[in-house]
Structures are given as C-alpha cells and as structure tokens.
Amino acid sequence: MHTPFTLGHFRVAVGAFFTALAAGTVDFWLTLDESLFQSFYRGTVTISLTGIDSKPDNVGGEVVTILLILAGMAIYGYLASAIVELIAHGVLSGAVVERRRKRAIERLRDHYIICGYGRVGRRIGAEFREAGVEYVVLDFSPVAKEAAQEDEAVFVEGSGTDDDDLEEAGLDRARGLVASSDSDVDNLYITVSARAARPDLLIVARASTGDAARKLERAGANRVVQPYSSAGQEMAKLVLKPQVAAFLDIVSTHGGPDLRFEEIEVQRACGQAGKTISDLRIRERTGALIIALRKGDGTFDTTPDPGAVLDDGDVLIAVGTEQELLALEEIFAPREALAG
User: Fold this and answer.
1) Hey, is 292 helix, strand or coil?
2) Is the N or the C terminus of the chain less surrounded, counting Cβ atoms within 10 Å?
C-alpha cells in the first residue's frame, strides 16, 4: 500500500542531510591533513554536488568524497520526491491555510461565535454578513464546513461543548455566542460551557420545546428562541395583520432598503445621562424615533415620554434610516471618542 510523504518524512530527510554533512566533515578531518573548518568546507562543497575545488591527496579522502557525493545524490532525490508528494497531497498548502485561519481568529475582537451551522446557523450568518458583523463558525459536520467555505466564513472544526474548541474560536474576546445546534442537549452544554468561561457573554440559544427553553435560561442563556413557535407566530401575523407584518419585516431585516432598528446604550462617558429625551431634541436633530427605553433594572418603557430621564446604563430602542441612526449614535458616543 502506498504511504504518502508527510512533514515527518521531510524532517527525516533534512536530518539525514546534516548527519551526512557532519560525518563527511569528521571523516575528511581524520583522513586529510586539513583543519576542521577546511574539512567542513570540503564536505559542504562535496555534498552540495557543486564540485570540489581540489582533489584529496590520499585514497581515504577520495573514498570519503565518493561516499559523500552518493549520499548527497540520494538525499536530494528523496527530498525532491518528498516536496512533490507534499504539494500533491496538499500538506504544505493545508498548513499555510491553517496558519492563516488561526491568525484570522487571533485578530478578531468583539466577534460572535455560531455553534451549529445548519439551516438556522446559516441564516444567522447571512444576517451577520448583512450587518457587517464578524463571526466564527464552530461545527464538526463536513456539510457545515462546506457551507462555511461557500459563505467565506472563518471555520473552526470542533464542538461548542468542548472548552478547547470554544477557546480556539476566540471565546475570551467574543461579544456574543449563538447556540444554534439542532440538538437541545448540545445547546444546553454549549450554554453551560460558555457561561462558565465568560459570565459577561451575551448568549442566545435555540430550543425546540418550551421545557428546553426554560432549562437553557436557567443554564445562563440571555435569550432563547424557539424557531417552530416563532414561525407559527409569524405566519399568524401574516394572516391576521399583514400590514403590520410587512412593516416589521422591513425594519427588522439588516438588508432592508429603508428603516431598521438599533439599540444604543447611554453611558456616563457620553455626557447625556441625567437629561431627558426632549432636552436632547433627538427627533429634530437626527430624524430617528425612540420607540422604547430599557431601564437599568431590566424593565421596558414601550412608549417613552419626551420627559423621560435617561440614566447611565439605559438602552434606547430607536428606529430610522441608516443615516438617522448614525446621527443618533454620535449624540451618545463617548466624548473622548468625539474629541479624538
């Protein structure tokens, strides 16, 4: 059975080359009246097959020269075959691709990890790409790997239930994680592992049943989505309130041509904490509309009054065009960033 060359074979060939060079140097030094450096020079010239600049002055030196030339020819032939075989089997190119992939992950900051790249995971990836958000796919399925390559997504072959694989996907630098496996058990383990490693991480998990959703919430998921339940609600809205559904579809799609939702956190560094919505004249200055206000205690004001006071840690839910929302973000940007 044919055994292809590997990087291990290549290292053996390189080791044989330097071993032969060292042996030739010592033999020349013992058989000829030359210094150790002169012997090393003669051995290098001989094994490189470039020819010798002087003939040895005794039979012993000539024998060493012949043997070293033959050893050099054999090693070069083996190395040439190894290189061709390595390229033909993609070992070298695969190693280069792997290094590039690892460097790409190491450069990521505030990215998202998608654990499970099936139909739901691929849709999440499409939304991330539309929003210009960086993400890493973590899955072990060959089908998922092929899908990630088609989407030009960074892929880590492994499982979100494995701590080492999560670490390789850059969990310590990630902004959030999506547990979108087809298995509720896997999503539960993924949530537990990620929450244990990153107590501050945003985790959104998929569940197929209400019971699984409750367990995922207890395990530490910030949000749990039930695709089948959500699909039923969406279909009911399309039938009962088609215009409302059409409007929500426009503003909730990242690739939509008109309006979209955005959430903006009020931070002390922006200098706007303690002011009211009317004080900031948000509608007049930006054109965006504040449709909800999430307070620091987690409660929502779905119809915020213009006199509502904005506190540090509050989150504004706004709707508007891309330019309007950018103008709104500038109002609540940290003053240091604006000064810079």
Assistant:
1) strand
2) N
Among 179, 241, 244, 245, smallest CA distance to 216 is for 179
Residue with tokens 């919505």: 277
The count of residues in the chain is 340
Q: Please count the structural domains in the chain.
A: 3
CB 303, CB 310: distance < 8 Å: no
The whole domain housing 50 covers: 7-89
The continuous run of DSSP H or E covering 290 comes out as strand 289-294
Residue 167 pairs with which residues in a beta bridge?
none
Q: Of all residues in the chain, what percent carry a pLDDT higher than 70?
A: 85
Using 50, 70 and 90 to split pLDDT, how confident is the model at 104?
A: confident
Give Cα 57 to chain centroid, integer Å: 64
Q: Which two tokens stand for residue 106?
A: 């190491």
Q: Which pLDDT band holds residue 1 (cuts at 50, 70, 90)?
A: very low
CA 44/CA 25 separation, integer angstroms: 8
Instruction: Check which CATH number belongs to the domain holding 139 and give it.
Output: 3.40.50.720
DSSP string, 122-156: HHHHHHHHHHT--EEEEE--HHHHHHHHHTT-EEE
